[in-house]
Design brief:
The chain has two domains: 124 residues, Jelly Rolls (Sandwich); 104 residues, Jelly Rolls (Sandwich), CATH 2.60.120. It has two helices and 23 strands. The model has no long low-confidence stretch (mean pLDDT 96). The protein binds manganese (II) ion. Manganese (II) ion binds next to strand 2 and strand 7.
């Protein structure tokens, strides 16, 4: 996971960012909290995401993309805060056709918490029986929880899943014990209880909650590629160098 904590960018004509680069064998999930980012890829997909929006790109068999600050945001400057998660693909899906899901905040499944306590946005997976719109290749739960001060919210995932949270704004207490403050990432033990609860200590706390079923397959990660073997990584570089990613 990559995380850009709050950073104030000065105005600039030429948008900052990363020029065309390849990916293969996994998915990039970009979640915007502050600022705006613009995406273009070799499959002709184009998207701009701002506060609360998510972009889910399946690199699959291979794609080229660029990620830059959106032009108007760049010109004006301002606070920027983003998360990018790399979701691995099961071995059988590594060569899937590249795909792009635009998941704007407005279309996201929103679960209202009791007593006006806040909202849980279901990006992927399911919360309290409500499903997110993103399609995934293995079970993944990804939520943005917007919690008012004093709100308790409970979450439950199989304890075989890898489960973690990132406090994006504010401060929460986990299971009535541990405080996790802004810009802190916390990972649960796999033998922890299946259910945990968060209690917001600050008004307008935002917590990104991630939980996924482990693939239990060999991982070979090299630069922009995530494959299952060294031979597949070498092949990925050959494909990229011969222009197969577009
Ligand atoms: Mn990238």
């Amino acid at each position: 996971m990559g995380y850009n904590p709050d950073y104030e960018f000065a105005p600039r004509e030429n948008p900052r960012g990363v020029g065309a680069h390849p990916h293969k064998g996994f998915e990039t999930v970009t979640i915007a909290y502050k600022g705006k980012i613009e995406h273009k890829d070799s499959r002709g997909n184009h998207g701009i995401i701002g506060e609360g929006d998510v972009q889910w790109m399946t690199a699959g068999s291979g794609i080229m993309h660029q990620e830059h600050h959106e032009k108007e945001f760049s010109k004006k400057g301002g606070l920027f805060q983003m998360v990018q998660i790399w979701v691995n693909l099961p071995a059988k899906n590594k060569e899937t056709t590249p795909h792009y899901q635009d998941l704007p905040f407005k279309d996201m499944t929103k679960v209202l918490l009791k007593n006006e306590g806040g909202t849980v946005n279901v990006i992927a997976g399911e919360y309290l029986g409500q499903k997110g719109v993103a399609t995934t290749f293995s079970p993944v739960n990804l939520f943005n929880a917007y919690l008012n001060k004093g709100t308790k919210a409970e979450f439950s995932f199989p304890n075989s899943y890898n489960t973690a949270l990132l406090v994006v704004e504010g401060n929460v207490k986990v299971n009535g014990q541990q405080n996790v403050s802004k810009d802190t990432f916390a990972m649960f033990e796999n033998d922890a209880a299946e259910t945990f609860y968060l209690e917001a200590q600050d008004e307008n706390s935002i917590v990104l909650i991630m939980s996924g079923e482990p693939l239990n397959e060999p991982i070979f990660h090299y630069g922009p590629f995530v494959m299952n073997s060294e031979a597949q990584i070498i092949k990925a570089f050959e494909e990229y160098q011969s222009g197969k990613f577009g």
